[in-house]
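Summarise this fold before class:
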Amino acid sequence: LGKWAIGEGLIYSVDNIKINDNKKELEDFIINNRAKLTIGVDLGTIHPSAFILVAKVKNTYYVMEEYYKQKVAPSELAKDLVKFYNDCIDKYGYYNIDIKYDHAAAWFATEFCLINKTITLQKAKKDVLKGIMNIEHKINNGNLVISNNCKNLINELNGYSWDEKNDNSPIKLNDDACDALRYAIFSNDYD
């Protein structure tokens, strides 16, 4: 992974991340290519909660939408995910989108099932190091494109760093959108 070679402990080679400035063109591309859509969900009680919608076309992932809020009650968070899911279905014309969530937050699955009876949550693959290597590989090969409207994810990626005290872990601060991205892509690649 070459974690210290990237510079000042940053996890990803942020200079290699492709940012797309034409959201409408990107949306049309996703719709026309019948991409596989996945929402990654990282849940926070103290930290923000993040939902990231990724679209996979061939070997490339396109980050299309994000939700990022702090201090949201569990019932409201569940409602927000149902709305985010339905909005994505309406916008992209899909009838099904996978949702990969952080199953360490068992409270959320319970809350989500109380509010929703039709959308299924799937446990995310959570191997941190393998997931990070998977994302870094995509970045370095030009296989990750992020819509410029995903401001929180872009901000987090620019500061996502290794914890100097724990050699194999990222700093657990301002990493919520990065975790949601990892859940969506890594889980999708290894289903």
About this structure: The longest strand covers residues 60-69. The helical segments are 23-32, 74-92, 106-115, 128-140, 151-159, 176-189.
